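Form 7-S
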Amino acid sequence: MISDKPSLEKPTPRKKHKSLKDYFDFRNNQVNQIGLILFSAFIISTSLHFVFEERFTEEQWKTRPMTRHKIVDDLIDSHVLLNKSKPDVIKSLGQPSFTITKDIMLYELGLAPQFNSNQVEHLYIEFNDETVSKVSLTLYDY
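Output:
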């Protein structure tokens, strides 16, 4: 019951708030140190991957055909070819290595490092209504 009389019990002391600098004091807090190291490693590895990843350029595609496997991922991910016409694709990438049908073209990607594999990667471009509808990688056995 609630009464209007003062309580004889001692009031519980309030919890002391941490100061801001205590949250960033890593001297004795191993969990925070490990978290900081993992976070730093993630940021550094992501940055290095972004800096050293090869970007697609038409000039590199045409002049260095044996290194196309390095830039093909950027070409596919950036959707540069989607909704382009066949003449525009040929202008950008050059003549295809193979034409399967009038709506499917293949470009050789060069020799990627592979172990015990007889498969060769090609850039697969499919047209629908005279525009690019699908761009992907395909493997062919030789």
